[in-house]
Fold each of these.
Amino acid sequence: MKKGCKYGTHRVIEPAGVLPQPAKKISNDMEIFSNEILIDVIALNIDSASFTQIEEEAGHDVEKIKAKIKEIVAEKGKMQNPVTGSGGMLIGTIEKIGDDLVGKTDLKVGDKIATLVSLSLTPLRIDEIKDIKPEIDRVEIKGKAVLFESGIYAVLPKDMSETLALAALDVAGAPAQVAKLVKPCQSVAILGSAGKSGMLCAYEAVKRVGPTGKVIGVVRNEKEKALLQRVSDKVRVVIADATKPMDVLHAVLEANDGKEVDVAINCVNVANTEMSTILPVKEFGIAYFFSMATSFTKAALGAEGVGKDITMIVGNGYTVDHAAITLEELRESAALREIFNELYL
């Protein structure tokens, strides 16, 4: 076996010299290098912003969605939406471990894992799309994928179904970042707080702010409000359109006794919500953009335009122990687990 770069640059076809994620095309030849792992793929969990964009472009036609996904993978060698730039994650079983990794990884052939690196950089070959479940952004396939030496993963837990675990692991970076960013006594606003990542963030934020802090959940309608209230009765739920900054600002201020918040978390899966995240944040506060629909340009210039000196954080999908933190939320909260079982199974 030949040995490749631990970060996967040996797989890049175009343009030369870049890493796999920004590359236009990578090799999805499934003859693995000595420091790679071959995965027999069961399903893809497409990033929410990406799936939403593909679904809308396809007019909600499942066959057209299938065709678009196949087209992207055939062209790029990976599942990276050309519009959003994002990917998602996968679950599968370990088929082969490269010679250089034998004894250096805790994985063994046959283990069922969820990859915690984006599909936007993962070499992928789709042989067949068996089914698409639009309600949970899931694509069941027959195919193969490669995990680089630097790639992170989680062995699927035995105390919950793989679909439940995957639903949470797909957005594990968000609640784990909340655990790092949010402090006792603070006020926190979460946009898109009735979505998958939003509910996990709301639950974690309530834990972190403690009894003297405030968590404000911004949702679109009464149905989402009722859902979020099931997660925790300590969340102050407000209804506002996240694409309308002034509406969000007024709603958050009203819920926070007229004060701006310490931290705002963006979990919305549509574009043009940057200023709705920035405006409610107080001077020297934090805006965390987990949404893959975020525009850096709009956020940077928008904050400048309204004179906001705040720290803006790009939503890194990885933070230390993010899988453990997120799965533990489902173990701790019967309400969260019940909701996830209802919505994502």
Note: The chain has a mean pLDDT of 95.
Amino acid sequence: MRIHGQTIDEQTRCVHYGTAEDVIAIKFACCGRYYPCHLCHQEDADHPAEQWPLNQRDRLAVICGVCSTELTIADYLQVSGCPTCGAAFNPGCKLHTPLYFQTS
């Protein structure tokens, strides 16, 4: 799976977010491309980001950078780490949920 943006390693960390727990990439609804973060999309894409609609929470749109497991939006929003490999996800990412997914 190709991850776009300024990644700094093979586990999807980027120049903006590079802690041990920054190991996810999100498929953007507008272009179907995986980016590590909203800033990577903003810098790389030629269009504004769009949020995933509430009625599409069943879509595979989050990838674990450690094991490449794809998660649905609904599953990702309910876990604190990868259900396949156990890698912890950065809890701070939940603060950015409205940037990627509609919340109401």
Note: The mean pLDDT is 97.
